[in-house]
Write a structure and sequence with these properties.
two-stranded antiparallel ribbon, four-stranded antiparallel β-sheet, disordered C terminus, alpha+beta, about 5% strand, 7 helices
Length: about 280
């Protein structure tokens, strides 16, 4: 049974939001870490991880509720004794995917807490969520719908790429190349899920594309390559914009840096002294 357009668009929006956010956040984090001699994670980075986890968990919880309680949903009923059959397995299939992303979001928040968990568990939980998503799409019953199977096989490639990057990040934390590849894979998943919705369940109604036409398979494979190029272009454009923003936001006046913290401190490059207000020398 093909997925509805709303369901595909909802999942696609989830991946697009995170992909677009990461395409700005990771380049900025890399540039600031590169300019920081200590290279220690800041409290702002930890707050961003907690915020991402909360958004991921809330979005996944909303997805589960939507899949279960839409008018055609199973309403938490897995098996029907009356018909002796499973109830709306497509909705249960999507709810399971959201469930693992919900757990991933919770792990993102717990990893930044005071529990002192081993590093990398947040990326490992994300890898697990992506692998579960790919597993369910690969072993779904497509019947004779060759086009449906082909579309989700291409989607599985993007899912596998994101899962591999997340797994490598368990051991190579804050690696900008892996973060960029994971960002691209999320953007690719998001845009391709929207494409799947338009192909199989057009929002304007009517039947989807012809499942038996082999030229559709050829075109959509080429279209997937265009989506890959678009994801890379978005990441590149946002990275360039992030670099320009980072450079324009730095306050530099000749050889003097201006640091705004709890007070005003003007420090001259290459010197250890500080220019402070005359009345505050004793307090300092």
């Amino acid at each position: 049974m093909p997925m509805s357009f709303v369901g595909s668009a909802l999942r696609g929006t989830f991946f697009l939001i995170f992909g677009l956010w990461w395409s700005v956040r990771y380049p900025l984090k890399y540039l600031r870490r590169k300019g920081d001699a200590e290279g220690q994670p800041s409290s702002g980075t930890q707050r961003a991880e907690i915020f991402e986890g909360a958004v991921k968990a809330l979005f996944a919880l909303a997805g589960i509720l939507v899949e279960q309680f839409v008018p055609t949903g199973p309403h938490l009923k897995l098996y029907s004794p009356e018909t002796h059959s499973w109830t709306e397995l497509t909705h249960w299939h999507c709810s399971t995917i959201y469930l693992f992303f919900l757990l991933s979001g919770i792990m993102d928040m717990v990893s930044q807490s005071r529990l002192k968990l081993p590093p990398g568990l947040d990326r490992l939980s994300l890898c697990l969520a992506l692998l579960i998503e790919g597993l369910l799409f690969c072993f779904r019953d497509y019947g004779d719908a060759a086009l449906d199977h082909h579309l989700h096989s291409l989607l599985a490639m993007a899912i596998l790429a994101g899962a591999l990057c997340a797994l490598l990040e368990v051991f190579l934390r804050d690696h900008i190349v892996l973060e960029t590849l994971r960002t691209s894979s999320f953007l690719l998943q998001g845009s391709w899920l929207w494409q799947i919705g338009f192909v199989l369940s057009p929002p304007w109604g009517g039947p989807g594309w012809d499942q038996s036409d082999p030229s559709n398979l050829t075109f959509l494979t080429m279209c997937f390559c265009w989506h890959c190029l678009g994801a890379v272009a978005v990441v590149g454009a946002n990275s360039a914009a992030s670099r320009c923003c980072n450079e324009s936001c730095q306050l530099r006046f000749g050889d003097i840096d201006v640091e705004l913290d709890c007070g005003l401190c003007l420090r001259t490059k290459g010197s250890r002294g500080a220019l402070l207000p005359e009345s505050g020398a004793d307090d300092k």
